[in-house]
Specification:
Its cofactor is pyridoxal 5'-phosphate. By secondary structure, this protein is α/β, with parallel strands linked by helices. 44% of the residues lie in helices and 14% in strands. The protein binds ligand AN7.
Length: 369
């Protein structure tokens, strides 16, 4: 069948619009370590939108363009799905029957969903009392076996690493190299959507897997000639949990952004190299600045992300005076706001009238009519 290039392009877009996005492994097969023998375990992750942020743009001014890469719109509500489709597919390929991970929440939700899809057992270790409710609800419903420990994420990770070394379970934390391979596709999508690389990429850092994966993706497209530059990688952490900024392990990390309550990042060396190679900046934002950005995103841009994700925008706002005129900036929003409903309920300035008599007069009076 003959198709003109423009028709081929049109149809391709139609297919995506009709919901036939094949998932990121099929979409980017030639860029990923998969073969025809790899069973592809997918929930159609990836292909997330780059959403303009006109109000933040206007606030910063000087012709700056801001986009939000909303990876909270993945199947389990976070960017982890990009890595998990790869990690679980590769585990399935070698005949693994069980996977294990430590998690601050999102990895456990994603691992549980993809393991279920692959017919594998999922064991997840989480820090007792520090996982947001939405994430816990997901892991429970997807059918994972949850082991909640009296310790933090770093202690949980130490245990799962040792367990995976000695028992027949596959580790799916970001130490698993397939995770970062899957996650690098987010950078491909950013370049495809912009037609070029952004000037800055602002991103939250916990274990620093995602910043390392993005950088890998940006470099690969640059080398392929799909972009003629690479961005400065701007990595941010919460000030109570900032080992990569202070340059030392944090024994008792603490932050409202429980997703990144991590004191001993496993991808530390990779992240330091990313910072150097990209001429990037690593810096902290306070919990107060995180909540401020979280509220601005929801109430000014209509984008509801979880607190850890708002770290990228909090960092952007902190560095707003250093943004070059007319720069194009992408802030990565790693997880959906519904992941952590109690944070939203406890941190808003909404008008919320309660206990109102159910009659029109009482209602219209409160409405100021
Ligand atoms: C929303 O789920 O580590 O720097 O165990 O959930 O790649 O670690 C989550 C991390 C940012 C940090 N935003 O990414 C876990 C976990 C959200 C996150 C990060 C996480 P990395």
């Amino acid at each position: 069948m003959f198709l003109s290039n423009s028709l081929r392009y049109h149809l391709r877009n139609r297919v995506i619009n009709l919901g036939c996005w094949p998932g990121l492994i099929k979409e980017y097969q030639s860029w990923l370590p998969v073969s025809d023998e790899t069973p592809i375990i997918t929930l159609k992750e990836g292909g997330t939108p780059l959403i303009p942020a006109p109000n933040i743009e206007e606030y910063i001014g000087r012709g700056v363009t801001i986009y939000l890469k909303f990876d909270g719109l993945n199947p389990t509500g976070s960017f982890k799905d990009r890595g998990m489709t790869m990690a679980i597919s590769k585990a399935k390929e070698i005949g693994s029957r069980a996977i294990i991970c430590a998690s601050t929440g999102n990895t456990s939700a994603s691992a549980a969903a993809y393991a279920c899809r692959a017919g594998m057992k999922a064991f997840v270790l989480i820090p007792d009392g520090y996982v947001a409710q939405g994430k816990l609800a997901q892991a429970l419903l997807y059918g994972a076996e949850i082991l909640s420990i009296q310790g933090n994420f770093d202690e949980a990770l130490r245990i799962v690493r040792k367990t995976a070394e000695s028992y027949p379970v596959t580790l799916v934390n970001s130490l698993n190299p397939y995770r970062l391979q899957g996650q690098k596709t987010a950078a491909f999508e950013v370049i495809e959507a912009l037609g070029k690389a952004p000037d800055w990429l602002c991103i939250p850092m916990g274990n620093a897997g995602n910043i390392s994966a993005y950088w890998m993706g940006f470099k690969e497209y640059y080398k392929a000639g799909y972009a003629n530059s690479t961005p400065r990688m701007m990595g941010f952490q919460s000030s109570g949990s900032a080992p990569l900024v202070i340059g030392a392990t944090v024994e008792n990390p603490n932050t409202i952004a429980t997703a990144i309550r991590i004191g001993r990042p496993v991808n530390r060396d990779k992240a330091i190299k990313v910072k150097k190679d990209s001429n990037g900046i690593f810096s902290t934002v306070t919990d107060k600045e995180i909540i401020k950005a979280y509220q601005i995103l929801a109430s000014r841009e209509g984008v509801f992300c979880e607190p850890a994700s708002a770290v990228s925008v909090a960092g952007l706002l902190k560095y707003r005076n250093e943004i070059p005129d007319c720069a194009v900036i992408v802030c990565v929003l790693t997880g959906h706001g519904l992941k952590d409903p109690s944070c939203a309920i406890g941190n808003n300035t909404a008008t919320f009238h309660t206990g109102i008599k159910p009659d029109i007069k009482s209602i219209t009076k409160l409405m100021g009519l």
